Amino acid sequence: MTSSAMPPVSPVPEPQAAVDAAPGTGPVGTLLTERPPVPATTGPMIAIDGVSKWYGDFQVLTNCTTSVTKGEVVVVCGPSGSGKSTLIKCVNALEPFQKGQITVDGTKIADKKTNLPKLRSRVGMVFQHFELFPHLSITDNLSLAQRKVLGRSRDEAEAKGLALLERVGLKAHAHKFPGQLSGGQQQRVAIARALAMNPIVMLFDEPTSALDPEMVGEVLDVMVELAREGMTMMVVTHELGFAREVADTVVYMDQGGIVEAGTPAEVLGGPREARTRSFLSAVIG
Amino acid sequence: MNYNWNWGIFFEASPEGTGTYADMLLSGLMWTILTALCAWVVAFAVGSVVGVLRTLPSRAAQAVGNAYVELFRNIPLLVQMFLWYFVLPEVLPESWGTWLKQLPDAPFYTAVVCLGFFTASRVAEQVRAGIQALPRGQRMAGTALGLTTAQTYRYVLLPNAYRIILPPLTSEFLNNLKNTSVALTIGLLELTARARAMQEFSFQVFEAFTAATIIYIIINLLVVTVAGVIERRVAVPGR
Amino acid sequence: MFSNFDFGVILNSWRYLFLDGMTFTLTLTALAAVGGVILGTLIAMMRLSGLPVLPQIAKVYVNFMRSLPLVLVIFWFYFLVPYIGQWIIGAERPIQVGAFSSSLITFTLFEAAYFSEIMRAGIQSIPKGQGAAASALGLTYWQSMGSVILPQAFRNMLPVLLTQTIVLFQDTSLVYVLSITDFLGAASKIAQRDGRLVEMYLFAAVVYFTVCFIASLLVRRLQRRVAIIR
Known about the structure:
Chain A has helices at residues 15-20, 84-91, 116-121, 138-148, 154-167, 183-195, 213-228, 240-246, 264-269, 274-284; strands at 46-55, 58-68, 73-77, 99-104, 107-108, 123-126, 201-205, 233-236, 249-254, 257-262. Chain A is α/β, with parallel strands linked by helices. Chain A has a six-stranded mixed beta sheet with strand order 6-7-8-3-9-10, with helices on both faces. Chain C starts with 7 loop residues before the first helix and ends with a helix. The radius of gyration of chain C is 21 Å and the shape is flat. The B-C interface holds B 1-3, 70-71, 73-80, 82-83, 86-87, 90-91, 174, 178-182, 184-185, 192, 195-196, 199, 205-206, 209, 212-213, 216-217, 220 and C 1, 64, 67-72, 75-76, 79-80, 83, 86-87, 93, 170-171, 173-174, 176-177, 184, 188, 197-198, 201-202, 204-205, 208-209, 212-213, 216.
């Protein structure tokens, strides 16, 4: 996908189409068994405002500002070590930051009064290395947080998990353990695990970069479908084909800072910055 | 070797008048097992807490955990035994000290507490290593799902860590079992103490020690076998 | 709570505690560590030799020793060594063996089992190519072990060997069961004589802790240096 030649100026995709897509249009039902819960505020779902972060003396993020509105798909790309993974981990406070402000659905995440577990339970996250819990069956992986965080009953949690498993095409594997699945299958389970919490937004941290090439497609398909159903998504990825197909906004990061942001056509088609151009030519080859 | 072997000695009555020498050794074995099991419960519980403390982000928690391990690892077990048995009752308020000294089976309780806290420092070291051996993303995944720190440990990190450290925990359990013999110095009538007493009463030193040796080897084999069964039972498919 | 403590008892007895007791403890520790490492290395070599029978003998020895409590082994050798000595020199009756010799034999043989496991891991950590290269240069088995494999294995394992020596230092306190005057034995004798158990045992704990804690800090520093060199 990424190796296809790209025209210098590609037509701007219709971001509206993604937002308004009606549920039930996917090939096997929809990933969202119910519409995402209505956010509490009308502002952006995620607002990142002037965030800087240091490891000791080493600055990893420099004054990053961007936002994700409801229903928007934002793809963050950039070379390794550019800080994009760190930035997305700051969004649900998995990484602390020293300067700036991040709000998720109107809640300041660095505020001491914020109930972080509660906030995180509404923010789905998918990791590069899947991070399924190896000692739990697929069913238990899907239901653990539903039961312990949302207080759902075992039956309710398992039914919800099973429904999502069916949507990602893995219902037959419900009783297995993570180690018995392929990487692509594990990542689809991880997406289902995050969706089971009825998140208002999904974060993807390089979801396909640990996969064998032949498994990238099955994971991207699930993500594309999710985007088409109107899920708000922030995705760190090198899959520029995915960005071109479903992103509303592409953010390009380098050396801990946001270099430029815009529609896929603007950033991927005709980047203003030299750094973006050299990255793109390196990735596309 | 001009030594008068007498393997029939085990079936002769011991001068204690409570049965044969064999009975004497078996009662020692019972105390050894009972002490080892009770001490292990203490060691496992305390060791898990201390091990977890050492992996928490809080510097203070880490310091407390590290201090515990250093304290209990750098004093010989025998000296710790004396501290609990001879020193503790003296430095406590007088009424508590008197109560402690008059406790029936005081050597047993002392041995359980002393061995438990001592072995806990070693269990803690293993628990810490087990948790730190897990991928960092596991903690993040638990956190990202909204689990609290306690829940992440309870449902994600510890179940995996215990599986990893089962082999070293088995050898710690065996050390704990062997270490019960140190409590003979405070009067616990465990297996080695009974073998020594049999030697003193009967002068059949090598028969007594041979019997004890064989018993220890059998317990070791049993524990290793049981640990193997547990290991297979809790093994996660696909790993 | 420390008001009726008499710390003078320590000052009055320090020569006995350190010149008699601690000297015994340190000498026993040092000699048993050296003997244990040498014997342990030989056992490890037996175990990895690939020859018939020798590996099995080594394995049985190690597992046997590791199954037994040290206290029982101390008793065993205390009674057994005189008979073995008699058998070796063909004497009329069991020979007299001093407390120190008896302890030294016990600890050397017992700790060798533990040291051998460390040396085995050390030898196995050396890439197979090293042995092959030594053979290709025409070195014999003993030459290749002595000048290629063992020096590397020993250096890699030095921190672990020293940590085990700290354990050995603590373990020597168990000669108490034979009423030997090691450091703890000396402290205990003064404690009984003067009725000062609290002071003497607390003092013994502090001394052991200080020695072991500082030693383990030094080992950790060494470990970092070894890690960097590698």
